[in-house]
Design goal:
The chain is an alpha+beta fold. The protein has a domain at 47-72 and 91-187: tt1808, chain A. The protein has helices at 6-10, 18-23, 47-66, 120-131, 184-187, and strands at 31-34, 37-40, 71-74, 79-82, 86-89, 93-99, 104-114, 138-143, 148-154, 160-162, 166-167, 172-175, 180-183. Strands 3, 6, 7, 8, 9, 10 and 11 form a 7-stranded mixed sheet that branches. Strands 1-2 form a two-stranded antiparallel sheet. It has a two-stranded antiparallel ribbon with strand order 4-5.
């Protein structure tokens, strides 16, 4: 495994452990481990994807600063998860609380900006993995091609609820745990 190239990893169809995945090299391609299988990004994110990721990051970071919360909103951070098979996911935006700059605390919110290449099966597996992380209380799936957000929340009894789907530029996402609310057009970087 050590020193494995991107081409070799792309043709591997048997399950991989988290430890094996972390020794693989994918060059400049983004890779995730989903249900034990290596998934390489099909292409670089689109400009629209970048606008949405940036809009969400700025909105969340602003709410955290305004509320003086000991949390950070970040992009490009990996999240290892152990279930029946291993996962190493790279949400587009993640909020961590506690910890330090070098050792982030527990994740409380993850955001996935969905592109047409994301399959329903892949997203259900990711949802199940994110929900297995005890500290995560909010999961956002944001459609990059339309103003649409799916928001999952964990309650005090550890049960998950899917909020009514938000759609339209003026629909408002409310995140009480972070003390923020934003019209979707703001999160999409359009306002």
């Amino acid at each position: 495994m050590e020193g494995q190239t991107m081409a070799e990893a792309a043709w591997r169809f048997d399950p991989v452990t988290l430890e094996e995945f972390q020794t693989m090299s994918f060059g400049d391609r983004k890779a995730e481990l989903i249900d034990g299988l290596v998934v390489l990004a099909q292409a670089f994110p689109t400009s629209r994807h970048g606008d949405i990721t940036g809009g969400v990051l700025v909105a969340l970071a602003g709410a955290l600063r305004a509320g003086q919360r000991p949390c950070r909103a970040q992009t490009g951070t990996g999240l290892p998860i152990r279930l029946d098979r291993d996962y190493y996911l790279g949400p587009d935006v993640m909020v961590h609380c506690g910890g330090s700059r070098d050792a982030p605390g527990a994740p409380i919110l993850v955001v996935e900006v969905l592109s047409p290449s994301n399959s329903a099966s892949e997203m259900m597996k990711k949802l199940r993995a994110y929900q297995a992380v005890g500290s995560i209380a909010d999961i956002l799936f944001i459609d990059q091609d339309a103003y649409a957000v799916e928001h999952w929340t964990r309650d005090d009894r550890d049960a998950w609820t899917l909020s009514p789907r938000l759609s339209g530029a003026n629909a408002v996402l409310v995140l009480p745990r972070l003390g923020g609310e934003w019209p979707l057009e703001v999160l999409y970087g359009d306002a």
